[in-house]
Inverse folding.
């Protein structure tokens, strides 16, 4: 896969692409990079050949997508992340390279996990590896837009924290999702900043003792 030249400043976000489809035609399918910025950073659940920590420019991560399957229910939707176009934004995550038969298998799996069950569409983004930001890569990202029925939109961080503390789904508690994402950001180092995520974590920390006994609260954290 050809690499794009390093960008000197954030470029306008590319338009949304149609749902990802496995490559067609004869021969082995080409390699593909898939960018994860939510649960994919710790649980991709598909085979891949390589992975790199890094960031995309022009987007900010927001807990604005509702989840009625993985981290919530129809009656109590959880809150999971999507990308918001923001020319000054920067979102850290993990890019996974899939090759050959891994491409079609990964896209098939993610179509169910992210598109069918999650309400996400696909979009091409430019990914900058942490260890070689001067060699950006084109990657596929799953983004929930305001047009999908599960989109919840903005809310005060305290309200989002309250919703996260109250919800769980087939993949686990919504709080686990939040804390695992916060742990990943800490591992990325001080240059990886996400004020929205940090504010929700702080709000959860202040509310957690009110939701469950002290021993249970410590176990979750």
């Amino acid at each position: 896969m050809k690499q794009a030249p390093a960008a000197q400043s954030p470029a306008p976000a590319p338009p949304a692409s149609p749902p990802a489809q496995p490559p067609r035609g004869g021969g082995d399918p080409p390699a593909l990079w898939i960018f994860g910025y939510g649960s994919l950073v710790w649980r991709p659940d598909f085979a891949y050949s390589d992975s790199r920590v890094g960031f995309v420019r022009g987007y900010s991560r927001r807990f604005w997508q509702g989840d009625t399957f993985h981290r919530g229910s129809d009656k109590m939707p959880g809150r999971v992340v999507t990308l918001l176009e923001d020319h000054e934004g920067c979102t850290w995550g993990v890019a996974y390279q899939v090759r050959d038969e891994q491409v079609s298998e990964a896209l098939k799996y993610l179509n169910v996990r992210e598109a069918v069950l999650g309400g996400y569409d696909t979009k091409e983004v430019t990914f900058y590896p942490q260890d070689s930001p001067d060699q950006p890569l084109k990657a596929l990202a799953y983004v929930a837009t305001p047009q999908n029925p599960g989109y919840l939109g903005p809310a005060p961080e305290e309200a989002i924290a309250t919703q996260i503390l109250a919800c769980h789904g087939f993949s686990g508690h919504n709080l686990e999702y939040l804390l695992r994402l916060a742990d990943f950001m800490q591992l990325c180092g001080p240059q990886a900043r996400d004020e929205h995520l940090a504010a929700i974590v702080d709000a959860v920390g202040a509310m957690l003792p009110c939701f469950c006994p002290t021993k249970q609260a410590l176990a979750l954290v």
Summary: Residues 32-210 form a domain with the Hypothetical upf0131 protein ytfp fold (CATH 3.10.490.10). The chain is about 30% helix and 30% strand. Confidence is low (pLDDT under 50) at residues 1-28. The beta strands are 32-36, 50-67, 78-98, 121-129, 137-143, 168-169, 172-173.
